[in-house]
Structures are given as structure tokens and as C-alpha cells.
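Could you help me review a protein record that somebody else here produced? This is what I was given.
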Amino acid sequence: MEENFAVSQSALDLTDSINLPPRPDVLNIFNEEMKSPDPNADRVVDALRHDASLYGAVLQVVNSPFFGLRVTVTSIKQAVMLLGLGRVYSVVQASALRNTLGKGVNLERFWDSSVEVASLCGLIANELAAPQQSADDAYTLGMFHDAGVPLMMLAFPKYKRKLQQMISEGVESLADEEVIQFGCNRYHVGYRLAQKWFLPEYMNQAILYQVNIDAIFAGTVKVPTNTAELLAILTLAKRISESFNRYWRLDGSEKFKD
């Protein structure tokens, strides 16, 4: 039987008191061009040139093994020509997220894990012969799926220590315990951030409903089909990443260390 599942409105309302970073201007410009019938790639490139750190971060990702390009990309314009505006947009979103949230807390291992999961999401979507848009969405979700963690750390000074403690103690449901301790959890915060950054709602719901993945797969909680597909890809990517980390004897709390 289908559950009448609803996210606690009070938990979502609490996130409104958290200082969520605004969407970077370059993404607003990018989005305008994406919606245009005749997108102006030069306008996007010019906007990125004004943010040296973001420009460099995008090039680093584009030249990673995930994209498998046979040449080294040395400019955003070249990246757009080789990958298309849509794929570069997903990379810019992910890079902007890391640059923006990385200013408040130092979590290099956390971001390394997010990049790994994002890359795996994209690769799995490609292996499933998903449309390119779906693969790009999967990559974006991989980067955003745990974005609520650094925001929780900024909003609640005791969150990081408490999170490490819960992981070491093997707490069954971190999300539920976070709500008990802080009134909301990482998925509530990540969902609100994704909304503020104007990600598509089916992706926002994938961020929010990660905690209900078993019920969704069992069919007792209903979500849009593309949300369920993204969650399936994300779940597989996370399990592959977790297995790799266990092989190298890394405890789950490692990624939350500085």
C-alpha cells in the first residue's frame, strides 16, 4: 500500500533561518543562455572569465578522466565546442557549489568523495545508455546530494562533532537523529539550497527523499519517475564508492575530517 508520506514542514521551515548562499551570477547568465533559442556561448565564457577560481575549477573537471577527452582543454570556449553548452553547464554548477560552500568549512575529503560519487553517477547513467541530459543530471545530483552537510556545519557549530560521533557509534538513521538534535537534517537543507539555485524539482526531490530510498524502491512512497531513476543511480554510485573506501580501510567518518 502506498504511504501518504510528507516531509515535516517545520523541518523545512527551519532551513529558512539558515543562511543559504545565493546562486552565483554566472549561473544566472548561463541559465538565461540555456533557455534562449539561440544561446550565446561567448557571453557565458566572458562571465566565467571574471571568476578565475571557478574558471580553473571547471577546466580541471573537464580534463578529468570522467569526460575522456583526447585533448587537453585549455579554455572554456574549447570545452563548450567539444562538450556542448549543456554538459559544461552541469560542470559549472558542480564547480560553483564546491567553490561557494568551500569558503566556510575545510572539507577536502568530503568534496573528494562528492566528486567521486558524481563521476560514478555520470558513468553509470552512460552505461545504462541514458540520454545525455539524464547523465548530466546524474552528475549534478552526485555533487549536490550531500551539500546540506557543510551548510549544517556552518549553521550549527556542534554539528560536525556530533556527526562524527553518530557515525562512530553506528547510529542507524543519521537523518532522523539530526532532526532530533537540530530540528532539520542535511537533506532538508540540501533540498532548500537546490531550490534556491533553481535546480529542476525532480532533482530537488531526489536530494530530499534519499532518506526514504527503501520505501521508494518498495513502491510504498511514490515520487516522479525521473526522481526514482536518479535515486537508483545515486544509490548504486554511493555503494560503489563506499565499497572502494572500505577496501582502502577508510572509516565513513574520514570524509568529514579537515
Notes: The chain has 15 helices and no strands.
